From TrEMBL:
The keyword Hydrolase applies. InterPro entries: ACT-like_dom_sf, Formyl-FH4-Hydrolase_C, Formyl_transf_N, Formyl_transf_N_sf, PurU, PurU_ACT. The active site is at D226. It catalyses: (6R)-10-formyltetrahydrofolate + H2O = (6S)-5,6,7,8-tetrahydrofolate + formate + H(+). Belongs to the PurU family. PANTHER family: FORMYLTETRAHYDROFOLATE DEFORMYLASE, FORMYLTETRAHYDROFOLATE DEFORMYLASE 2, MITOCHONDRIAL. This is Formyltetrahydrofolate deformylase. SUPFAM superfamilies: ACT-like, Formyltransferase. Catalyzes the hydrolysis of 10-formyltetrahydrofolate (formyl-FH4) to formate and tetrahydrofolate (FH4). Residues 87-263 form the Formyl transferase N-terminal domain. It comes from the Bacteria.
Length: 282
């Protein structure tokens, strides 16, 4: 039985890294199907992603243990991942454009992930989720019940064995504790007017200022609100003829595009965290 897996790593840059990785894979009967590398001259680090195939059912745990000596020699941070689609849990509130886009791409087979459930603090999007055959879990949130609601969220992540949590316009701020619990495995989307137009009615504020570009940013969730490592951004040029309603429509298109790309790249193990930034092998 053949098997594919993905190896990603980051380490201080020096000679011999690629040779050591290639030799290890060859010695374990593996072929490199896809290879990408970035040498960061500013930070002096090397980042690498390779998709690997083998003609036998590779034991990733055993291969990972065998690789420990190579990783130690070069000071590598390494991950061996199965190439199977990742399981994702989507969180929403009342706006459905991002959920609708994710569901469409999932059903079309272009998301690179398997949506396993939809969780919401409102009931509005239950029909959309259930029409797609997805479990819908209503977890209401108030100021007094927020700790219990977040505990429920974390339990659902475990229950559905979700690798990634996608905040698809989930309009609740997660606590620092929950952000830390989901570090590196939760993605959020917001309009790129932040922090220029914060608070309520950002598109009306943008209209009043005569903006010429509408955008959206998909990033990892951190305790610093909307300041996590950026995965993808989408920008659409507009002009004076766009009223606040038209700006909202364009903005939602940008949000859906940026979020779906970020989700796919994460699930295909194309995103490597490096400090407060990312390397994205597209």
């Amino acid at each position: 039985m053949s098997r594919s897996f993905i190896l990603t790593l980051s380490c201080p840059n020096r000679t011999g890294i690629v040779r050591a990785v290639s030799a290890f894979l060859f010695e374990h009967g593996c072929d490199i199907d896809e290879y990408q590398q970035f040498d960061d001259p500013v930070r002096g680090r090397l980042h690498l992603r390779t998709r690997v195939g083998a003609e036998y059912d590779v034991d990733l745990g055993a291969v990972s243990r065998d690789f420990e000596s190579v990783a130690a020699e070069f000071g590598m941070t390494v991950t061996f991942s199965d190439a199977a689609p990742a399981r994702i849990l989507v969180m929403v509130s009342r706006l459905g454009h991002c959920l609708n886009d994710l569901v469409f791409r999932w059903r079309a087979g272009s998301l690179g992930a398997e949506i396993v459930a939809v969780v919401s603090n409102h009931e509005d999007l239950r029909p959309m989720a259930e029409a797609a055959g997805l479990p819908f879990v209503h977890v209401p949130v108030t100021a007094g019940t927020k700790p219990e609601a977040e505990a429920r969220l974390l339990s659902l992540v475990e229950e559905f064995d979700a690798e990634l949590v996608v905040l698809a316009r989930y309009m609740q701020v997660l606590s620092d504790e929950t952000c830390k619990a989901l570090e590196g495995r939760a993605i959020n989307i917001h309009h790129s007017f932040l922090p220029g137009f914060t608070g309520a009615r950002p598109y009306h504020q943008a209209y009043e200022r005569g903006v010429k570009q509408v955008g959206a940013t998909a990033h990892y969730v951190t305790p610093d609100l909307d300041e996590g490592p950026i995965i993808e951004q989408e920008v659409i040029r507009i002009d004076h003829s766009y009223d606040p309603k038209a700006l909202q429509m364009v903005g939602r298109d940008a949000e859906a595009l940026a979020l779906s790309r970020a989700v796919r790249w994460h699930c295909e193990r194309r995103v490597l965290l490096t400090g407060g930034s990312t390397v994205v092998f597209r």
